């Protein structure tokens, strides 16, 4: 894993964010043009194209315009998986292993990872920009400690890393803000302090839910060897290519055997069956060899998923520690509320 990066910098947030007045103006303008919600597509116009950042194995990146149907065909994904990446909807963090791709939605990082490339949802968000630049850097330098990892795991690891770092930074920021407010509230109970704590408590609840979802998603993956095995995209691709080579070998030899038999004198049915049996036996020998048998055994027996499990476990420890900090913060708020109730009760008893 590369050196630790700081949280996604807020400087990447676009400066042209609309004010309330501008939003109202844009809403009225879009309504005059026939649609109050320009993000929604009219029926019959097909799937609109979106901007994606395509990153290949060598760290080269380019912006491409692809529609939903093209992504579905290229990555063999159902439509419901791509809905998880739609910026018009809010979905919890998700990591899905499919036949030819890994669908990742972690905080602001939404991408489709294959054995050869990453399709990253284009955005001006700081985490997206940092993901793109850091992944390209790691792939181009190839001096990272994860050099032995297949391409798809390098891309997945960086998404986990940036999501965990971003959430950890937000927790630290909340801690720095909430502890002084709670201490002040304990010494001076007034409406302003109570309102401030109420707002921070809502922020704490929202942040806890997001951290909990990432925590649960990683834990779920580690508990299911089948789901982890689905994510070995490079191995599955090599296995598929090996089977294709084996089929081609048998077809070529079978065609040669057929031509040799047709050009010779007529043979008995027994002899023809014997030739076909020899070809079938030769194919079995090829598939059972060390080159092809290794792929075949990995698809039928329990896959060795230790590599991915160790990767997930390292980030599970990080996110679990972040969740513990949030739990401690909630306990501190509860203790402060109990103290305030006791003080208010004592005041009421004096009158």
TrEMBL record:
Pfam families: MRS2-like. One of its GO terms (cellular component) is membrane. The keyword tRNA-binding does not apply. Keywords: Ion transport, Magnesium, Transport. Gene3D superfamilies: 2.40.128.330, Magnesium transport protein CorA, transmembrane region (1.20.58.340). It is a multi-pass membrane protein. InterPro entries: MRS2-like. GO terms for molecular function: magnesium ion transmembrane transporter activity. It comes from the Eukaryota. Belongs to the CorA metal ion transporter (MIT) (TC 1.A.35.5) family. This is Magnesium transporter. The lineage of its organism: Eukaryota, Viridiplantae, Streptophyta, Embryophyta, Tracheophyta.
